[in-house]
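wait is this the right file?? whatever heres the structure
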C-alpha cells in the first residue's frame, strides 16, 4: 500500500522537530513529543520516518543543502574571495533574521554530542570550502596556513555562535542589526584575509 502524504502534516512534523530540538536539545525531543506537538499520530510519524534521528538528519540535510546551494551560487557568480566571504556572512545573518528557529536548530545540533552530522553533508560542505580555499590562495587573498577546517570554523561556526550569543544574551525580540553583521565580518576578515 502506498504512503499517503499530507504536505501540511509533514510541514508540521518538521516545524515541531525544529522547535522541540531548539527547546530541549536533540536528546530531549522524542518522536512521541514531536508527533503530539505536530498534532499527528505516532503511526503517521513512523509511516514517514524510521525515528527521530532520520527526521532530524533530513531536516539538517535540507538546511545544509539550501546553504550549500547558495554558496555554490556565490562561487559560480563571484570571482573575488572577499566578496564570497561577505556573501556567506550576509546569507547567515539573513537566515537568522528571517528564520531564527532554523538558526537556533543549527546551533543546537552543532553543539550536541548526541547528534552526529551525516558524512555526506560534511563532505559536501568541505568540498565547497576546499574550492573557496583554493580561490583565496590563488588570488593571494587568503593566508596560506588557513585550512578547510579553519574556514568551516570561521565562516560557518563562528557566525552561528555569534548570532546565538546575540539572541541569548543581548537581544530580546529584536532582529540582528547591520552593525552586528559588519562586526562579525570584520572579525572574520582580520583572521582570513591577508594584509587586513
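ok assuming it is, sequence goes like this
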Amino acid at each position: 500500500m502506498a504512503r499517503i502524504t499530507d504536505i501540511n502534516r509533514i510541514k508540521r512534523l518538521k516545524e515541531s522537530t525544529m522547535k522541540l530540538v531548539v527547546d530541549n536539545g536533540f536528546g530531549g525531543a522524542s518522536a512521541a513529543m514531536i508527533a503530539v506537538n505536530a498534532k499527528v499520530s505516532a503511526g503517521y510519524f513512523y509511516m514517514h520516518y524510521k525515528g527521530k534521528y532520520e527526521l532530524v538528519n533530513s531536516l539538517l540535510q535540507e538546511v545544509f543543502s539550501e546553504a550549500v546551494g547558495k554558496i555554490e551560487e556565490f562561487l559560480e557568480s563571484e570571482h573575488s574571495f572577499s566578496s564570497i566571504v561577505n556573501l556567506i556572512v550576509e546569507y547567515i545573518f539573513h537566515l537568522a533574521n528571517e528564520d531564527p528557529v532554523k538558526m537556533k536548530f543549527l546551533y543546537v545540533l552543532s553543539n550536541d554530542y548526541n547528534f552526529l552530522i551525516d558524512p555526506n553533508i560534511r563532505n559536501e560542505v568541505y568540498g565547497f570550502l576546499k574550492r573557496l580555499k583554493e580561490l583565496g590562495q590563488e588570488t593571494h587573498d587568503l593566508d596560506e596556513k588557513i585550512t578547510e577546517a579553519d574556514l568551516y570554523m570561521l565562516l560557518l561556526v563562528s557566525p552561528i555562535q555569534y548570532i546565538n550569543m546575540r539572541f541569548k544574551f543581548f537581544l530580546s525580540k529584536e532582529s540582528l542589526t547591520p552593525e552586528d553583521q559588519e562586526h562579525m565580518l570584520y572579525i572574520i576578515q582580520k583572521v582570513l584575509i591577508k594584509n587586513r
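DSSP finds nine helices and no strands in the chain. so i think its the right one actually
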